[in-house]
Amino acid sequence: MRAIVVPEFGARPAPADMPKPEPGPGQVQIELEAAGVNPFDKRIIDGFLKDRMPHDFPMIPGVDGAGSITAVGAGVHDFQVGERVVGKFLIPPVGHGTFAEYIVVPVDSALAKVPDEVTAIQAAALPTAGITALDLVHAAKVTKNRTVLVVGAAGGVGSYLVQLAALAGGHVIATARPDDTDRMIRLGAAEVVNYGRMTVTDSPTHAEASELSVADSVRITVPGGIDVLFDLVSPPTGFADNLSLVQDGGVAFTTVGSADDAALTARGITGGNFQSSGGAAELRELLRHVGNGDLVVPIDATPPLEAAPDVIGAPGARGKTVLVI
Ligand SMILES: NC(=O)c1ccc[n+]([C@@H]2O[C@H](COP(=O)([O-])OP(=O)(O)OC[C@H]3O[C@@H](n4cnc5c(N)ncnc54)[C@H](OP(=O)(O)O)[C@@H]3O)[C@@H](O)[C@H]2O)c1
What we know:
Bound molecules: NADP nicotinamide-adenine-dinucleotide phosphate
Strand order of the largest sheet: 14-13-12-11-10-15-16-17
Radius of gyration: 20 Å
CATH superfamily of the largest domain: Medium-chain alcohol dehydrogenases, catalytic domain
Largest sheet: 8 strands, mixed
Number of helices: 10
Order of helices and strands: EEEHEEEEEEHHEHEHEEEHEHEHEHEHE
CATH class of the largest domain: Alpha Beta
CATH architecture of the largest domain: Alpha-Beta Complex
Distance between the termini: 11 Å
Oligomer: single chain
Number of strands: 19
Strand content: 25-35%
Number of domains: 2
Structural class: alpha/beta
Shape: globular
């Protein structure tokens, strides 16, 4: 089968011919149509999980994928050949991922059936980023009129998070580059704070030049402080700066490990370093939202599988990149 492989940690991925995997007991074989790309793929390739999980080489990277079941192993009753499915697959040994024509996964992994109205490309864009966003909204208990700041809103997680926080009734402030302001508003942001060129946009129709930091810009817009901070990108100093916006007793999460728990506790702020743990149930909830038209799948680009070496780890995400297999 066609696949993308990495011969050793840190190596550049490359196309290769690999054996087609066959399902064992309790497993299904999926012919993949589409595979979502996440920043985590590059980190796995670079050895992030080296000491935590066994790996097989040549490693096929890729965690998110969607396609149709082509074979089922003994004892599988809930899934049948021909059914369309999607999943988030980080299954030891690491190295049998979704950047390939076929994958074999246990049925009790984060696997869900795809409704007819959702395409394989849309489905493949959901798992890691969508589940993380949903987990964050649940963990922070976003409710009506809570002021929610999303830092790093333009990427995969952020593009879902803006929508899901708005859907939960939150007043969402998104950070984005100036050229992405309109998209953030369409996704449900009430306000957009620009970074990069340092322009403040208070509403979809009004923009003024500014030399302010994101935190200073938000402070002007929301002088009383925010209720919830979701920071998807900032290193510890940036997170500490953004944390100063959160009201005492509020909630602040970082997905990149930038929180100093003591600093949060001192101000009665809950949250901290966040690890997404959602699975099949959260994936089904996201698929329902997409099927209902409540959630837009933010597709940025759909390059072919062979383009994977160029898109894995690439910066400047505007939603999700999905490899078409
Ligand atoms: N802990 C967990 O469970 C978990 C789960 C999922 C993801 N993550 C992590 O969360 C992070 C975000 O994931 P993702 O999938 O959303 O990544 P992504 O798709 O690459 O998006 C990151 C976005 O942030 C923007 N950005 C970069 N620097 C920024 C800044 N200073 N201010 C505002 N925006 C900025 C980027 O745009 P520009 O490059 O144009 O600036 C890009 O749009 C990644 O590091 C990922 O590994 C953690």
